Amino acid sequence: MKSSNWKQKELVCLVLYAAVFYWIVIRRSLRLSHDHFFKLHGLRPGWISDQLNDVSDAQWRYFRGNLTILTAVFGFFSFAASVIRKSFSLKANGMSIVWTALSLAYLMYLHGACVIFILGIASANFLLVKIFGRTEYFLLMLWIFNLSFLFCNRIFEGYRFSSFGSYWAYLDSFRGTFRWHICFNFVVLRMLSFGYDYHWADNFKSFDQHCDYCASGRTCYAALQETRVADDKFSYSIYLCYLLYCPLYIAGPIVGFNAFASQLDSPQNIYSTWDVFLYGLRWTFSFLLMELMTHLFYYNAFAMSGLWKQLSPLDIFIIGYGVLNFMWLKFFLIWRYFRFWSTINGVMVPENMPRCLNNCHNLESFWKSWHASFNKWLVRYVYIPLGGSRKKLLNVWFIFTFVAVWHDLEWKLLSWAWLTCIFFIPEMIVKSLARSYQVKSAFGEFIFRELTAISGAVTITCLMVANLVGFVIGPSGINWLFSGFLQEGGLPTLGGLFISFYVGTKLMLHISDAKQKDKTR
Hints:
Blueprint: H1 2-36, E1 43-45, E2 52-54, H2 58-65, H3 67-88, H4 92-111, H5 115-132, H6 138-155, H7 180-199, H8 212-215, H9 221-226, H10 236-244, H11 246-249, H12 257-265, H13 273-296, H14 299-305, H15 313-344, H16 363-369, H17 372-383, H18 392-407, H19 411-435, H20 442-473, H21 478-486, H22 491-520
Antiparallel strand pairs: 1-2
């Protein structure tokens, strides 16, 4: 009882501190944006109270600028596919042809004549799987084939038709509106998934996990992925539909072949029409929140302009923190938008951002919640085949290196990957020791929570550094970042940040406790 009362009082203090923290961050952010907007690049006239809008991020600018046409296209495709399915009572093979035709029309607009490259590589991969898929060294061949094209696509920037002869040179004038080799990174993951699921088809064990969805008669994603599909599902038409399925083609989320193919026959039954409507409504509110954020706070424009390097350590932190929150919300909106359209069409895929960026105090939970569908893909097709938790310390290096080169061939991404691995090692050691530690008293619980909060503060600091290096400042900015905070004027700010992250971790522990109580009721 005393422990409960003490935790309630602690929670009140933590919430008050958090309120003051965000009041300072918001107030200072508004002042920075107001004082420096004329020096920033990437601001455009906005629609909220004559404010300028920060569209300096190319990915967000492209998505936001094409949102209307994307919605119209996906709305038409969804309506057409639904009418055809009901009119002809189509199952997997029939729907795969319908969706492949619709997706090819979509790809022709995106990539023009470069669709030839996509179909050529995809067809070669299909033949490789069908010919060698049940042989001993197939997985090695599959990885060599796909990694070779992953690298070559980037090195040769999607190839030129003229390099195959002057006869084909005229096709270089019809390359579409979007670089095909950027989207092909996701196609590579799907080709690998198809190969693995075909290779494992004869060795699938019955799936007997019981979750709330399965118990209620619905089918969860894990059950779809771990249940073997019939041999006729490994056809060329279903394979091509899986690779090119337009709601997921550009950005995912990533879905395994087994899960996708099984839903062509029987559309998902987890979410009702009302659930999908509410999901879309929440997305709309989140989009409006992003619009408000980019009209008031020019975090990304500061980072893109390099102006933040001239500011105080406190302002550098505020902008860095704001950039990471902007990135989280950007990907949240992009991934949920495409997941929404996929769900409407009966294909349920994993949620990519199941947890807020500001509710993760260790590396493992952060990477399970950031691009979560990719995490599931990596666990199934890379981590477990490499030995799983038995070789965890070694596996993280291979996995994060692959993730870096999959994103792009850049040193800053490799720096991000290797920094993350370095930060992962002490966390894994501490977690291993914590599992063997038994809390036997209230004082022991108090010490354990304090140590968890301190380690959480360290982890959040490391996460900020790794992600800023990987996606904003690059490895050349590490010395500048450290020198800014480790000088005399930066140490008080660094101390304040550590206390704030400590408080944040304590709040996350209270949230976790509340969720645990709800489960036990």
